[in-house]
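Researcher: Structure prediction, please.
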Amino acid sequence: MAWLGAVPALAQSRFDGWASAVIAGDWRTSAGQPIQAFDNARRDLTAGFLAAGFSRGDMVDYSLRPDA
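Model: Predicted structure follows.
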């Protein structure tokens, strides 16, 4: 019999206790022009780590781009 109002236990991620850092280390092409590719990759990797089960509290993501 299910209890009314019972809170289901949160599933434990296989990544509990892990930490991650995603850093976009550049923001220019080889010709020196600004490019979003590195920050787009930072955004997408962060989303992927979250989807895989990493805790946002155990994750940092930084950009070296001055205006990001």
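Model: The longest strand covers residues 20-24.
Researcher: Thanks, that helps.
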